[in-house]
Amino acid sequence: MNNTTSARTTKLDAELSRLQGEHNELQRRFHELSRMLNIDSTPELVMKKHITDLKKYNELRDTGLGLTQIIANEKKCKIKEVFEEMGYDMQDRP
């Protein structure tokens, strides 16, 4: 192995070790917070639920926009004007 390959391997090994340490720390914190909040779940289940909730949110949002479009068409105006009339902002919020 030449010097550049060896140096690159050493650098990648150090990065891998650092990332494994971060992963272990995140898992430790997840389990600590889960115990504190009495949550009996795994990170995978939390992510799966989050994705399911996002899909549901997007479906509801699309339905709402569709209904708003129908209202805007009936009033012969833009969707933005319907939202403003209802006091809603068109921006998604976190």
Number of structurally distinct domains: 2
How large, in whole angstroms, is the Cα Rg?
A: 24 Å
Distance between the termini: 50 Å
Q: What pattern of helices and strands is seen along the backbone?
A: HHH
Nearest-integer average pLDDT:
90
Question: Helix proportion of residues, in percent?
Answer: over 70%
Structural class by helix and strand composition? mainly alpha
Count, helices? 3
Strand content: under 5%
Shape: elongated
Comma- or semicolon-separated keywords:
single chain, 94 residues, mainly alpha, 2 domains, 3 helices, 0% strand, DNA-repair_Swi5, DNA repair, DNA damage, coiled coil, LADA_0F11474g1_1
Written description of the protein model:
The protein has 94 residues and is an all-alpha fold. It contains three helices and no strands. 80% of the residues lie in helices and 0% in strands.
How does the SSE layout of this entry go?
Blueprint: H1 3-36, H2 43-75, H3 79-86
Helix pairs in contact: 2-3
Summarize the structure.
Residues 9-36 form a coiled coil. It is built from three helices and no strands. It has 94 residues and is mainly alpha-helical.
